[in-house]
Amino acid sequence: MSRSSVLVVFCVLLSCGAARYDFFAFVTRWTGTACLSTRANEPPPLHDVPKNVAAFSIHGAWPTNYDGTWPSFCNNSYPFKWNEIQDLKSLLDVQWPSMTGPNPDFYKHEWEKHGTCSLDVLPNEHSYFSASAKTNSNTGFAACLSRAGIKPSQTQPVSLTTLSNTLSNCVGKKVAVGCLSVRGQLHFNQVTLCLDRNFKAINCPSTTMSTAAKSCSSSSQALVVPIPQSCYNSAEGTIPISA
Ligand SMILES: *[C@@H]1O[C@H](CO)[C@@H](O)[C@H](O)[C@H]1NC(C)=O
């Protein structure tokens, strides 16, 4: 065997340079809860979320394996550069706001940890962020909730089965609903849409479903809260919500 064919065999086995992953876990947060949860602990320096922020905003598009593992920080020769995606700013402000600090810091983390692992499919920062933002704005989870008569409320919890069925029917595939306990009350927190390498929806695998189910404990319902006013104004971030 020639030296180069040895290298090829070696690289096929170890997938040199390219990360191994089966699908994208496209995690979107229920913005109402994302705004709350950061304030439950201590007030972080919040980014001012725009008034027209998406009801479901992106946390990240994460290359993931069916067994539940995922690659991370796959290419340190491609550090985040804000100027590569600056033209997407107004779209990202609405679809992918940070709740804990300046947006570019959040994007840098998502890019370097996750985006660099899917360069085989989304070969640069621009394609990664624009495909994600477009996917989120086209998904229509919020419209599906309102068509199903599910209205945000501070007090009336929603059945998690109803929520899960409504969101799954919305995309025609099984999605994973996640929860977060905020000051002792279970809140609907996020929905994971699973995407193949062409960014087409697929049924989420059992590993994704069971991780999400665990976050909802064994509860049958959770609060789907409206976006608090404080989300829109970082100045209010200095007022901690008492535990
Ligand atoms: C890593 O990033 C560099 C710089 O953009 C690029 O030239 C290289 O092809 C990337 N490597 C892989 C395996 O994608």
Brief descriptors of the model:
single chain; 243 residues; alpha+beta; five-stranded antiparallel sheet; two-stranded antiparallel sheet; globular; binds 2-acetamido-2-deoxy-beta-D-glucopyranose
Overview of the molecule:
By secondary structure, the chain is α+β, with helices and mostly antiparallel strands. The chain is built from 8 helices and 7 strands. Strands 1, 2, 4, 5 and 6 form a 5-stranded antiparallel beta sheet that branches. A hairpin with a 2-residue loop joins strand 4 and strand 5. The longest helix is centred in the middle third of the chain and has 15 residues. It is globular, with a radius of gyration of 19 Å. The structure holds 2-acetamido-2-deoxy-beta-D-glucopyranose. The site of 2-acetamido-2-deoxy-beta-D-glucopyranose (NAG) has 6 residues, from loops.
Task: Give the quaternary arrangement of the chains.
Answer: single chain
Helical element count? 8
Strand content: 15-25%
Q: Quick one: biggest sheet?
A: 5 strands, antiparallel
Shape: globular
Structural class computed from helices and strand pairing: alpha+beta
Helix content: 25-40%
Indicate the radius of gyration in whole angstroms. 19 Å
Ligands bound to this protein structure = 2-acetamido-2-deoxy-beta-D-glucopyranose
Instruction: Report the average pLDDT across residues.
Output: 88
Catalogue the unreliable spans: 236-243
For the record, give the distance between the C-alpha atoms at the N and C termini, rounded to a whole number: 67 Å
| DSSP E strands, number | 7
What is the ordering of alpha helices and beta strands? HEHEHHHHEHEEEHE
